[in-house]
Amino acid sequence: MKHSSSPDAIAGFEVDLKQALIWVARALDYVGVDDTHHSHRVAYIAYQCALALNWDLKKAEFCYFAGMIHDCGVS
Hints:
Elements: E1 2-3, E2 13-14, H1 17-30, H2 38-52, H3 57-68
Antiparallel strand pairs: 1-2
C-alpha cells in the first residue's frame, strides 16, 4: 500500500483492488477448500466463458475476479 490523498484512497492509503482480491483468493485456497488453486481455475474458466460470449475485456476481467472470490462465504 502507498500513502495517497486521491478520492480512491481509504483512510489515506490507496488499495490495489486487483491485488487485494488475489490475496483473498489465495487465503481462501488455504482454508475450507480441499483443492489447491481452485479459485484460480474457476476464475480462468469464468474469464474464458466471458470471452466465448464475446464480452469485452473489462467484463471478462470482472468475471475473472468474481470467480476468484466465488467461495468467499464457504470458509
